[in-house]
Amino acid sequence: MAHAHPHSHGAGCGHGLASAQLDRAMAAGVALNTLFVAAETVAGVTAGSLALLADAGHNAGDVLGLLLAWGASWLARRPPSRRYTWGLRRSTIYAALGNAVLLLLACGGIAWEAVHRLRFPEPVAGPIVIAVAALGVVINTLSALLFVKGHADANVRGAFLHMAADAAVSLGVVLAGVAIVLTGATWIDPVVSLAVASMIVAGTWGLFRESLDLALDAVPRGVEPEAIEAALAALPGVIEVHDLHVWGASTSEISLTAHLVAVDGTSHDRLLADAEAVLRERFRVAHSTIQIEGLAACEQCRQRPADTL
């Protein structure tokens, strides 16, 4: 047999949050943050604090982000169908990208309003700012801890980064409230708002780049195609590797296709088993499609580079 196409399916990530754990974490995170957004919005209006309202808007975006991430993780667990033969796992990629875009847009709105407040300052009730922001530190820290085990998944990591950044931002708002109480300076509130926006952008940019790369089928971060090619080429009986492609099937699963040229007499079944073991154990590849070619078939392969000897 000149060609063979093995397929291996797996969980993709050997560690992280199980489905039931993720559902509970998402439900708790959404509930906690929804209640806090409502309280922070009322307090922000009452205190006249843009910093609180900015943080409330950011937290509202996080609630939406958590819902997107939760929905995508649920879709990713749906079995493949005749129409969606890969299932809906890539929805986690688009959810992560959507979360990043929403956060960046929110930062633009916060910065715009902060600049306006610098030009036209308004009084701020410092004690209310301090009390509500301190509550935010607690709630956001607890929310972040719910997702601390899911770092291998960009979709879950996005939720964790949002919550962790919120805790830091809320702490900054607490400090701003203290400074307003001590000095009475109204410019502190919009300046802190600009700092909040800057922190969010800094924390979100990496997620945006990673999720955009995944959406464009780039090689997932942490994966070296050269190392994979070398490992496959070192398998007994393999004399050449070409048409190697690596991409993310989801935010936590790696897929790969490759052509292996084997010397005549090589056991294809054995070679396929060895290749699958190397890809799964060393490179965490969840789904691999390997085509084995003999020397004669290799010369006719249209995917083989013209300059390959």
Description of the structure:
The protein has two domains: 19-215, Alpha-lytic protease prodomain-like (Up-down Bundle); 220-300, Alpha-Beta Plaits. The protein has nine helices and four strands, in the order E-H-H-H-H-H-H-H-E-E-H-E-H. The chain has helices at 19-47, 50-76, 91-119, 126-146, 154-183, 188-215, 225-233, 268-283, 295-300; strands at residues 7-8, 238-248, 254-262, 285-293. Strands 1-4-3-2 form a four-stranded mixed beta sheet. Helix 1 packs antiparallel against helix 4, helix 2 (50-76) packs antiparallel against helix 3 and helix 2 runs parallel beside helix 6 (188-215).
Task: Tell me the quaternary state.
Answer: single chain
- What's the N-to-C terminus distance? 23 Å
How is the CATH topology of the largest domain named?
Alpha-lytic protease prodomain-like
Number of strand elements: 4
Q: Detail the poorly predicted runs.
A: 1-15
CA-based shape: elongated
CATH class of the largest domain: Mainly Alpha
Largest sheet: 4 strands, mixed
Strand content: 5-15%
Spatial order of the strands in the main sheet? 1-4-3-2
Radius of gyration: 25 Å
Secondary-structure arrangement, i.e. CATH architecture of the largest domain: Up-down Bundle
